[in-house]
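User: Can you help me understand a structure? I only have the sequence.
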Amino acid sequence: MKETKVVDEEGGANPLSESLLKIAKRELREDRCTREQSLEQLRNWVIKNEDLQNVRCDDTFLLRFLRAKKFSVPMAEQTLLKYLNIRRTFPHMSTKLDYLEPRLADVIEQGYIFAAPQRDRHGRRVVIINAKGLNPKLHTSCDQAKAHFLTYECLMEDQETQITGLTHVGDFSGVSTAHVTNWNPTEFARIFKWGEQSLPLRHKEIHLINVPSTLKWLIDFVKNRVSSKMKNRLIIYASEKELQKSVDAKCLPLEMGGTMPMREMIELWKQELASKRDLVLGLDQSQLLSDRGIQRRSSFNSEKSSSGPNFVSQIESIEGSFRKLEFD
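Assistant: Let's start by predicting it. Here is the structure, written out as tokens:
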């Protein structure tokens, strides 16, 4: 397969195959001319923006935002500002993402969240979320959030993943009331509101399995507050056999009907985290000095809005209800 070298500002070469370039062209409107012109515009904007400090200007970092917004430079600028703002607003969850830090290391070691080493038939990385890997009696919502942020920061450093996007598989077996009530409702509402629009990720598919009946109405609640695009990409399965029809077995751990033991996948993921450790920790140098450049909607459609006190009160109501429920 013929490869094209995309050279970034730091002099590093990222080989992109012809098939990958075709996906980028078809799905992201990306070609060499668009990529080079957009990178130049975004880089100049970062350099001249007085509200930004120590923000990376290498191609790989900037392409996160351009590809997530299909090379609309103004939209990429807004996503970059929101990305830096979420890190500034929730530093206890989104910064100091060191996989060697004891609490975070334990969440990773237990296999709560990791990326399968093999790509699926679409060339996507598959993120496995295993509820049993998080002990709510030992780990806080902060530990849980940091594990997610670390996973996504690591994966976003790969240009192939920027183009193809991510597939998610969530196994809810072992979920307890403590998992649900581990979060402060107000903080959950804010993270939920900002997450989809602030992280430059392409969530292509979300597959959920072993969802307790007592949890399905919470998932329905969440589905009604994301974009229709995301809603249509979220599927709940009744069995592992159904899941395997949609997700390649090579991307699933043996314990979920796949081929590789989960323990091996976790160890390979730890190696990947080690290789990206310095890059991820270096992101903490980036600073947003003011959020004045962030464009905010003056009004929200009440059906789609996930902001405001009503959303928080609904989350609090759900939390109260779950304290009375028994899980399978």
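Now, to help you interpret it: The longest strand covers residues 203-209. The CA atoms of residues 78 and 294 lie 6 Å apart. Let me know which part you'd like to focus on.
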